[in-house]
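To whoever picks this up:

The nightly regression suite flagged Myeloid leukemia factor as changed. Nothing in the input moved, so I suspect the structure step. Input below, exactly as stored in the fixture:
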Amino acid sequence: MQSKVPKSLNADTNLMVVPQVYQASSSTRTAPGGVKETKKTVCDSRSGTKKMAIGHHIGERAHILEREQNLRSGDREERQELINLDDDETEDFNREFEQKTRQALDAITYPSRHGAHRRHQDALPALPSR
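Regenerated output under the current build:
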């Protein structure tokens, strides 16, 4: 699905002008024990590409999933990068990441309106399995 982009008419050439948009975002969330999640997105109307990367890190180890889409052709690519991990360790690493983020979030409590405490239930999202 393509979104409609407002167009304007160039007075000198009488050609339609489509604005070019480049949008990028980056975020990092951290938890105790060297656990962090990174997210990066880029959308570029000039090149017609949309990219997204999510990285799960524990200390010096990481599993990074990258997806890229060419908005003009519809072609999609998916890559994964493993840092200080072998392919056969990926599943165990993802389980360890989920466990460590769940433990960190279970330790956080928030006061409710009635004076009692409730636990934070939203864990960091897991990387999709293949």
